[in-house]
Design goal:
- This protein has seven helices and eleven strands.
- By secondary structure, the chain is α/β, with parallel strands linked by helices.
- The protein has a single domain, classed as Spore Coat Polysaccharide Biosynthesis Protein SpsA, Chain A (Alpha-Beta Complex), CATH 3.90.550.10.
- The strands form three sheets. Strands 5-4-1-6-10-7-11 form a seven-stranded mixed sheet, with helices on both faces. A two-stranded antiparallel sheet has the order 2-3.
- About 40% of the residues are buried.
Length: about 220
């Protein structure tokens, strides 16, 4: 069985949440990040859960883990100036025995544990895997306010998290990014940069990312459905 170390990215600055820390916002009685931790806690493949957080939130998130019986919680890593740096900081706490690294947005509290398990299995086969869903709308490329192209919608997917990689391959990607001064906004890009083939593992549309205040209401509506 694979041994998975989970990094939960929770060091964002909530620019689009009117100053509200979305990871700590209450959703049906629990902080958003608690749901993200609980989704991984129940999977036997998961060895440990590491949260990359702002320094001012470390004690709060540690207490949230304790209050929600997250026995696999392995501590907090300091968040960096960028998502990539936050993930790299958390990698320093990863166990030597782990075979896979999973990176998940704290602000995706509705991820389905069974989809995570499928993503783990796909990553073990292909080297990397990410949850995603087909786009529903027609997408246009626009330059200077004018449409320049219409990509084939059948080939377009909305990328979600977790994004999961074989540990050695992911470290190769991290080293490549650092050596070349690259800063990626997506964890897959680091693996792709060193030739890792990433599987797109089918998820569902409930796995939304809470980005704006309206998303909190949408998440609650989904949970009540």
């Amino acid at each position: 069985m694979e041994k998975v170390s989970v990094i939960i990215a929770a060091a964002g600055h909530a620019e689009r949440m009117n100053g509200v820390n979305k990871q700590l916002a209450m959703l049906k009685g629990k902080p958003v990040i608690a749901y993200s931790m609980l989704a991984f806690q129940q999977l036997e493949e998961v060895r440990e859960i590491i949260c990359s957080v702002r320094e001012c939130d470390a004690d709060i998130i540690t207490n949230i883990a304790m209050d929600n019986s997250i026995s696999k919680f392995a501590g907090c890593a300091p968040g960096g100036e960028t998502r990539q740096q936050s993930v790299i900081n958390a990698l320093k706490l990863v166990s030597r025995e782990s075979t896979l690294i999973a990176v998940h947005d704290a602000a995706r509290p509705l991820v389905d544990p069974e989809h995570i398990r499928t993503c783990i299995n796909d990553a073990a086969v292909f080297g990397g895997a990410v949850l995603g869903v087909p786009v529903k709308d027609t997408i246009k490329n626009v330059d200077g306010g004018l449409i320049t192209d219409t990509p084939d919608r059948r080939k377009l997917y909305i990328t979600q998290t977790p994004q999961i990689f074989k540990k050695a391959l992911f470290f190769d990607g991290v080293n490549f990014a650092q050596e070349h001064g690259l800063d990626f906004t997506d964890d897959c890009q680091m693996a792709e940069a060193v030739g890792v083939k990433i599987s797109m593992t089918l998820s569902d549309y409930k796995n939304i990312k809470i980005t704006t205040p309206e998303d909190m209401a949408i998440a609650e509506a989904i949970m009540n459905f």
